[in-house]
Amino acid sequence: MLNTKEAIEKRRSIRKFKPDSIPDEYIRELLSSARLAPSGCNAQPWRFKIVKEADAKAKLAETAHNQSFISQAPVVIVCCADIQGYLDGTVSGVQDLGKIGAIEDRIVTVLQGKVKSLETIERNELGPRIATNVAIAIEHIVLRALDFGLGSCWIRLIEGQKVRELFGWNDNIYVVAILPIGYPAEYPEARKRLELNDVLID
Ligand SMILES: Cc1cc2nc3c(=O)[nH]c(=O)nc-3n(C[C@H](O)[C@H](O)[C@H](O)COP(=O)(O)O)c2cc1C
To answer: Residue 154: CB within 6 Å of ligand 1?
Structure first.
């Protein structure tokens, strides 16, 4: 098993997959790791759809501007934010955090005010605001996948509305990204990264 540093350094975006299927228990493990991600007020708005059927994967690839490699992965995880789930989870999460004293009463009051104001915001604006939480959960999946020899690639170049139509979802579901996942049939060179100095702001 890789330690965190090794996983971070070894990870690559994988766009070629072997056809081998992934055991269901591996997928469950990945989702369990996603579940443990931190989220604002512990609201846990992430929801996942596991797609294995060839036809659905091909249609998903179409929603991603025909990035055809997506349909070659044995599994594609559609990673979403549940907007009502977020609103409900925030209310109970703030209460829980206040009760155990993790956050001060003063902050509980500020957060409760924020939650009230969220209810007046249009759903299509809330989705992108919640997406940060889901992104962290997705990256848990990406890194944990390496423990099983699996590779993946974040896909954000998608038409969310088309994904919703494909699965019959309403605007309560905001599609954050899709994640094709499988055994790598390539191991790309590390992509260029900025130097440490370049990521610091004076
Ligand atoms: C938010 C996000 C969106 C991305 N969207 C796509 C995408 O639509 N298609 C794709 O092929 N790669 C996509 N990528 C992968 C990036 O191109 C890749 O992470 C970057 O080039 C660095 O390469 P590496 O992941 O191998 O280190 C995305 C990555 C992230 C984090």
So the answer is: yes
pTM check: above 0.85:
yes
Please work out whether the CB of residue 8 comes within 6 Å of at least one atom of ligand 1: no
Which tens digit of pLDDT belongs to each residue from 78-120?
A: 999 999 999 999 888 888 888 898 989 899 898 888 888 888 8
Distance 155 CA to ligand 1 centre (A): 6
46: part of which helix (H) or strand (E)?
A: strand 46-51
> Ligand 1 in contact with 44 (CB < 6 A)?
no
The residue to which tokens 């100095």 are assigned: 197
Residues in contact with 76: Cβ distance below 8 Å, sequence separation at least 6, in sequence order: 51, 52, 57, 60, 70, 178, 179, 180, 181
